[in-house]
Design brief:
The chain has 26 helices and 24 strands. The protein is α/β, with parallel strands linked by helices. Among the domains are: 5-79; 83-189, Beta Barrel (OB fold (Dihydrolipoamide Acetyltransferase, E2P)), CATH 2.40.50; 193-240 and 411-451, no CATH class; 519-781, 4-Layer Sandwich (Metallo-beta-lactamase, Chain A), CATH 3.60.15. The strands form 4 sheets. The protein has a 9-stranded mixed sheet, with helices on one face. A hairpin with a 6-residue loop joins strand 17 and strand 18. The longest helix has 31 residues, at 488-518. The protein is globular.
Amino acid sequence: MRGRPGARRRSLRAVSVAAATWITAGVATLIPDAAPLTVALALAACVATALLAWRGVALLAVVAVALACSSATAGAVASVGPTRSQIAALEAGGGRQLTLAVTVTGRIDGSPDGGAWFDAVASSVRAGKLSVTGTIPTRVLVDAEGRAALAVASMGSEVRLTGRAVPSDPGERAALVVRATSIESASTPTGMWAFFEGLRDGLVTSTRGLPQPGAGLVPGLAVGDTSSLDPATEAAMNASSLSHLTAVSGANCAIVVGAAFALLALCGASRVVRVVGAMLVLTAFVTLVTPEPSVVRAAAMAAVAMLALALGRPAIGVAVLSLAVTVLLVVDPWLSRSLGFALSAAATGALLVLARPLAGGLERWMPRALALALAVPTSAQLVCGPLIVLIDPHVPLLGVAANLVADPAAAPATIAGALACIAPFPWLRDGLTALAWVPAAWIAAVAHTTAAVTAQNLPWPDGLAGAALLAVVGAAISVCVVRPRRLPRITALSSAAVAVVLGLVLGQTAVRTVAGPLTVPSAWQVAMCDVGQGDATLWRSGDAVALVDTGPEPEALTRCLQTFGVDRLALVVLTHFDLDHVGGSSAVVGRADLVVHGPPDGAADKRLLDRFAAAGARIRPAGIGLTGSVGTTRWQVLGPPPNADPGNDASVALDVVGTGFPRTVLLGDLGEQAQSALRRRIDVPRVQVVKVSHHGSADQDPLLYRGLLPRIGLIGVGADNDYGHPTAKLLGILTSLGTTAARTDRDGALAVWLDGEGRVTLWRERAGADDGSPASTGDVGTDR
């Protein structure tokens, strides 16, 4: 940090106060009663103040201020204690029916199941004859039907609802968390809130008709409205470290403040006028977006960063940042447990402290302008990375490059979109929206291109250990780039550490993207992924690949697709909508040409299909006799029968045939009765491979397997599962038929193919039953 030593010392004192306040806020929000802690800290602050008056030591001033701020933070937590006690007296946690009157205080955000959640302040909570009135911080969860009932509601709306309390995190801001069972009434916003809601709706309407995905990004870039953003683009933005552009973050606020500051500078305004004018514009922007806590927090951080840059004094900027953090924590102590708040503070601190030294170090290899442009996203990623791996144990290797390429387009898209939002004439609004679409489309293209590079998402150890390791790596990279002259030994050690890490990263990336596919037989035709207790089966013909079910988690499916070298899917079959068969779907949304599915069971299943459709896939319900091709293979749907009720017995069953291809039948999760019905409905073919039904449960029809007479039975099953899968009954059926059982819990990923002489060959990723080798391959035999 450049600047005078006195300024640096003062900034460090401010950092100490902010750190003490943050720690106290975290402790106070976790303990049952913060009042004793408040009193103890207040007394300690008084003692420190008395000692300061007596001895006049500067350190005591810092201690006294830190204790006073900590006491104020604990007091803010203690002040809501009586309200929480009143809510507890309602025995709300016991599942009693509650009736509430609330005022919406934040954006109504959608949830993955099609419902929504929002923050509110309840003015009354009633349970039977008991009631509590006051100002009660509340968080409300609604299902898809409830979300539809809230269509007219927004910030400032009055909502009456009934619901049941659900357990909440002890450190959560809300004194009451309610899952609504019905929305009795919801008013439209009035006054100022209605005016700004109309402006936002006008921007969303103006984007309709513009090409996606850029059209969906414009409202997100301008005012943080992601309702028009398609799921594939949202996933790509997250994967490429560009998600901060689709929600109102410090970046959006900084763009608005910077534009106002620059415009006032062009008009010849003084520095004071520029700063005051930029802050007024920021206030108007926050009101337009909706002044919910996350937006106010982002605006505060942006204001700090811009003020420091305007003054040209990073040390002062750090002090102001510390003051902002302290004030925000005193007002809202629960921010101490918010990862978003930590990321905002860390990113702003990185901009103030690390970006300039990194730029100075990079200038040794590149022009100054490019060095500064690269230093800003690099500093943010180095500082924020350890926090991000706590929730997503991956490091986006191309995140800095994506930001470097996309960030220049963020400013024109944000400014044009915000101006379109407030444009007084429809023709002017539409013109500005069209202008905003051009850079927004560029950002979307960068996101999709980056996310499509499978090597860019490096797995990383999770938890505190992984965060600490990444922090050490980030520090080493920073020292290596900056190369401080006073620390030559540390610089040398950092350079060596960076070289080692770089070698490991490149080696692991090569293993995942190049060597990974080389570890499986290149001739594979049918493969079963090791995704735990679930199903994910591939088949391939030429360059075309199909996937049947996605397993329970996207991470496991992604690893499998990388291992088998699969990027695009000609066909995805969702046999039914249990989590262990569709839970990994997000890994292939946007990568499928055709999706064939069993009967959906409710709105959540239909929304999943809508996500596939929005990402470009054609959607077809499965029906007996439905056929198609994947390469030179032909597939045919054997079930479910018409009007089957959703569930296991309505699983899509498939028959896959082709020249030089092992005939394969996939049975989904069909039970014994459904298998018997299938056997009576079709001419049961002889096959080489069967995907065993329902992970090898005991609910099987031996006569169906006898008719199929498979050479190999593939069983997707998780190790040490609680169901006893695969069962002795199923294994006995396969043994009696001479069928080789291959199971993912013991064998890992599996692959089957026909060799040049028509023999069925089985490959196991781990030690197999045949020879106990690390990866076994064996000929099972010729066709019967």
